[in-house]
Design brief:
mainly alpha; globular; 74% helix
């Protein structure tokens, strides 16, 4: 187990390093440059000072080695646009994204697994066919379009939920924590539902297919022949064995929801990492772009590692073998 874990950590480090290198080169070679237009506002001396401070007048290879040396010491650099350490910028953006992604992930799997199991148990009946068409429609809808439609209906027409932001501007910071928590939950509803519904539609289709395959296995017929209740057969035998494909989906969904909320955070003006990355790209804020890519790559490898560990929980027959 230890050797396997060390190999995975080494492979994960190599993947993150490759992603950071690729993103660093792409953003520096892309058209445009940081502070574009600032030379028309600042005097020449201030402009040169700014270029020297951020090492923008250095060759690309020197900028790269300087960045790696700083990164090895846990220094993500200084944000060009916000004029403060990138670590502080990420510290402000990651919690809202984790909140949004966690809520969407919970909705995704709670709703998706429930619908998938329900469809499998009522194969080819009216409920299965109807839910199959609904999930197919939701899975085909672009996430940003669904978000805009929900804003139009529930924020503009009905006025039930706010259209943007994470908190009400009129709510004082001295308000009780429960009031502030409910306000955040109120703002969280539409973006979380948007992300969660689309993902749940895909999860439901995966779970239905997995359950149908397991329900045809010999051990299911054996359990029924021994007199096990249908509830026990479904939950203890069929559902647990049908979780393996969905665990793989969970490993992929975890980083996708975390980093793929760029459009949703933009639509709902949610102050998270996706919106931060999008704004950093347009502002040519190289350190922030590279840092968000690093966090995204880390989430991908963490999601896959989590899926591998969950395999052994769902199916005790699977064990991590040391080479």
């Amino acid at each position: 187990m230890t050797a396997w874990l060390l190999r995975r950590v080494a492979a994960a480090t190599a993947i993150v390093f490759a992603v950071v290198t690729l993103v660093f080169l792409l953003v520096h070679l892309a058209p445009g440059r940081p502070f574009e237009g600032s030379e028309r506002v600042l005097d020449p001396a201030a402009w040169e000072t700014m270029r020297e401070r951020f090492c923008l007048d250095c060759p690309l290879h020197r900028q790269y080695t300087t960045y790696l040396a700083a990164l090895a010491h846990g220094d993500f650099g200084i944000s060009y646009s916000q004029r403060r350490p990138v670590a502080q910028v990420l510290a402000d953006a990651i919690p809202p994204t984790l909140l949004l992604s966690g809520a969407a992930l919970a909705l995704d799997f709670l709703l998706g697994l429930s619908i998938g199991v329900y469809q499998a148990l009522r194969r080819n009946r009216l409920g299965d066919v109807a839910l199959g068409q609904v999930t197919l429609f939701l899975y085909s809808v672009p996430t940003f379009w669904l978000g805009l439609a929900l804003v139009l209906v529930f924020a503009v027409w009905l006025g039930w939920f706010p259209a943007a932001g994470m908190r009400s501007p009129a709510l004082p910071t001295s308000a009780p924590w429960l009031v502030r928590a409910l306000d955040v939950a109120w703002h969280l509803t539409l973006p979380a539902v948007t992300l969660g519904l689309v993902a749940a539609a895909g999860t439901a289709r995966y779970q239905r297919a997995a359950m149908l395959e397991v329900l045809e296995q010999d051990f299911i017929r054996t359990a029924r022949a021994k007199g096990a209740s249908e509830r026990r057969v479904v939950l203890r035998h069929a559902f647990r064995n049908a979780l393996l494909p969905v665990i793989t989906l969970l490993g992929m969904s975890f980083p996708i929801l975390l980093t793929g909320a760029v459009l949703i955070e933009t639509v709902f003006s949610w102050p998270g990492m996706g919106r931060l990355a999008a704004e950093a790209v347009f502002r040519r804020d190289y350190p922030v772009v590279t840092a968000t890519a690093l966090v995204a790559a880390a989430m991908v490898v963490l999601g896959n590692l989590l899926a591998d560990l969950l395999y052994t929980v769902a199916d005790p027959r699977i064990r991590v073998r040391e080479a």
